[in-house]
Amino acid sequence: MKTFFNLVQEVQKPGLCYRCGGCATFCTAINYGALEIDKSGKPVYQDMEKCIECGLCYSICPEINDLDEETKRQAAWSDPMGRVIETTVVRSSDVKVRDRATDGGAVTGILLHLFDRNRIDGAIVTRPVGKFQRQPFLATTREEILESAGLFFDTSQGMKQFSDQYMTFSTIEEFDPMIKKGLKRVALVGTPCQIKSLRKMQVLNLIPSDSIKFCFGLFCSGNFTFGIKEQQYLADIAGISWDDVVKINLKDKFIITLDTGDVKTVELGQMDSMKRYACHYCSDYSAEFADISFGGIGAEVGWTTVITRTPLGRAVLADSRHSKSIEQFDVEDNPEFASSALQEVRKASSAKKKNTRYKRRGLQAKSVQVKV
User: Which fold has domain 71-223+277-365?
Assistant: First the structure.
């Protein structure tokens, strides 16, 4: 039976840990407490003596191929990028949501719809806590869900007060407060690796994954490090001062909105050295195991591309449209908006998979420098 020790050897030491938080979150949530997530988001031993060597943390790691076939069958997964039932482009009908949103506010709009309809008791999200950091958070009120929208800058705080990570890592560490509050109907918003880890838990019927009723996945090009050095590098190539920035977004490019309304862009290829090491080896761009996948790519500015992947996801989207919580892009403006959006997502997904295959061949051909 392989355990967390093997995860350290096979995943962390080669630098392949995505820091999704699944292993430590499961262990903590069921009160074994052998593992914890450190300040950098890395799972570590909290108390090795408490480890019962059940091997579940190893099996649910998205980098480990245990349970892959079972997970794919449960999700009705198919090539080339998972099950696709419907693709559309939508935005929140609420102007307040759109004003805060990174793209069209579709995720927030649907979460608010589910909360208002008493379909969920809360949502595991991330909320901005500084210029370059989002913090895992269990939102249990309408106001808290709204707070999680967007990636606005907090210019009243200095950069050094916050982490140098602009990411959504360890969102699922909020499983623990979810259990303590007794919530049984929760929506999870996460990156592809987080969604896959949860789906593996659900294949094994592990508590507390049964409390997650909706999985909303985010398109993901990778997580990036934004330390002082990286911030200066971006400012130089974009020709901006961070004091003038009010909003950032990551689509097929890094998009910077200034307080003047001007928009600056940086090619993702120019940021390759800033990407977390493990993200170079992840092949899932479009959150292939989610109920609904969301992202800005393929959509007009202010709109969100949405892919429903399960009957549950399709029903949620349809109900949200019916109640006018979200609105769909006008077909008269572009009759091919949905097919064009799907094509763009497929293209991005294919490029990420191709790059991952190339990188992994390199892993097999040479030793890997440890980056944890």
Answer: Aspartate Aminotransferase; domain 2 (3.40.640)
Q: What is the pLDDT of residues 319-348, one digit of tens each?
A: 999 999 999 999 999 999 999 999 999 999
Map tokens 């985010």 to a residue: 218
Angle, vertex CA 279, rays to CA 79 and CA 100, nearest 5: 90
Provide the 3-class DSSP secondary structure of residue 91.
Answer: strand
Residue 168 clears pLDDT 70, i.e. is over it: no
Mean pLDDT for 255-267 is 93
Tell me the pLDDT of the chain averaged across its residues: 88
Rounded CA-CA distance 242/347 in Å is: 32
Rounded CA-CA distance 356/21 in Å is 22
In angstroms, the CA 137 to CA 177 distance is 9
What's the CA gap between 331 and 338, in Å, rounded? 9
CA distance 93 to 210: 31
139 forms beta bridges with: 123
Rounded distance, CA 161 to CA 329, Å? Answer: 40
User: Comparing C-alpha atoms, which of 1, 66, 65, 53 is closest to residue 27?
Assistant: 53
Q: What digits encode the pLDDT tens for the residues 342-365?
A: 999 999 999 999 999 999 987 765
Q: State the Cα angle at 316 between 314 and 322, rounded to 5°.
A: 100
In the block, tokens 């090009």 appear at 221
For residue 97, count other CB atoms closer than 10 A to its CB. 24
Contact call for residues 189 and 125 (beta carbons, < 8 A): yes
CATH of domain 225-274: 3.10.450
Residue 255 in tokens? 């998009």
Domain segments of the chain as ranges: 71-223+277-365, 225-274
- pLDDT of 170 higher than 50: no
